[in-house]
Amino acid sequence: MASSAASLLHESASHLESDTERVDVEAPIEKNNDDKNDDPIPDGGLHAWLVVLASFLIHGVTFGTQYAWGIFIAYLLAHDFAGRASAAELSLVGTVGLATVFLGGIVTGPLAKSVGVRPLVVAAAVILPVSLVLAAFATEVWQLVLTQGFLFGLGSALAYYPTVAVVAQWWDKRRSRAVGIAMAGSGVGAVALAWAAESMLSAYGRRTTTLATAATVAVCMAIAVFTVRERIPPAKAAHGTPFRIPFDFGPLRDLRFRWLLGGLFMIPFGALVPPFFLPAYVDYLGLDSTWGPTLINVLNGTSIAGRILVGVAADHVGNFTAMAVTSTVAGLSCLSWLFCASPGSLIVMAAIFGFADGGYVSNFFLFRNCFLTIFWIRRITLQPGCAAQIFGLENLAGTVGLVYAALAIGHFASGPIAGLLVHSSVSPHGSGGVAAAGYTLPIAYAGIMATLGAIALVYLRVVIFGPGSLRR
Asked: DSSP secondary structure string, 361-378?
């Protein structure tokens, strides 16, 4: 069986190699037929940095708000929804929001190409604060799921993908670095919002805290509306092409794409558990309640460094290599949580996981660079570059829709599955350095899923591609 599997893999690889042109995924962006701007890519300057600022702010208020949801879960379990909701039910607010972001990415990419980036950011600037105002007056979990979950996720999707893509229009050789800085906004936002939420929840309660968050989001989005700017204009007026949602199952025939999709599918199942459940875990252990937000701030703070530093490193070692390494470290650090029950060990775990996960996320948007190597369609010449070009390649955009749909499943199911595995009625026995009994299953689940996803990416990078196939 092993020999037949090896033969099949060799045959598949040989077939794909015969149909595939070797592509340097880190080469500077080359123009394609959709790029109607003949000016050279600035790779810096006032407008380029203002666009990075806009994307930074949008990351801060969208993902920052959602990554800080773990603080709210611990508070709501003890106050507003004590005895009325479980951790699994409350985690749905965060997971529905994140799943909506990824499902929305299927639509917002082609929509931005048709109508432009700024109209979508304007719409998000209205939807995001309104969703939080509505959530402030919610009295049931399902109301929070609809407002701070689905509606906030919808607004996030409208702003997130277009503004990451527009950053890439202004940068070439330092593209990964610029995107990493922009994506660091989610870490900065999460640290600031988690700290503010912890301070305000105990003093003013959930409603006032949520309204204050809505005001902060409104201000940041207003700044983003005036600083975001496209270098390449929308394509609809020039081509008259109708709006279409990209979705293509053809790439599933490609062995390499299946490995990539499998890895990206599994990682979110585990990666969202630490930021959502660390505060509740601290309360379960009986540690001082201030350790919960402290761990979240450590995790989000180190993710800032990971997004920036790994983004810089990716300019030299390649985005695919950076994704494989950081996802492996994140998965193993998540597994190490099984042996962390003291404040010191939890801080180390949160710091390592935050840095690695931040680096993985900063390269996630640039995973589409990897498609330029993995995915080849006959009669379509795929040029090297990042999302600025990929949005202009119809067939490749279909693979992006497929990946976003797969990612949405993991982001939606991760929190509820982990919450269902929690057995809070079991007395903790973690003082000796072993994880508390009631959280052993959700921690093991998170670590195993994240590590399996990382193994798939490493196998794809090292075994199927080979160590010399991409820039080292």
From this structure: HHHHTTHHHHHHHH---T
pLDDT band at 367 (very low <50, low <70, confident <90, very high): low
Q: For all residues of the chain together, what is the average pLDDT? A: 77
pLDDT reported for residue 424: 61
Does 465 score more than 60 pLDDT? yes
Q: What is the rounded distance in angstroms from the CA atom of residue 77 to the CA atom of residue 64? A: 21
Do the Cβ atoms of 274 and 446 come closer than 8 Å?
yes
Can you give the pLDDT at residue 370?
47
Instruction: Record the pTM.
Output: 0.74
Structure tokens, 386: 């990042």
Residues 6 or more apart whose CB falls under 8 angstroms from that of 336 comprise 349, 352, 447
How confident is residue 153, by pLDDT bands cut at 50, 70 and 90?
Answer: very high
**3-class secondary-structure state, position 47:** helix
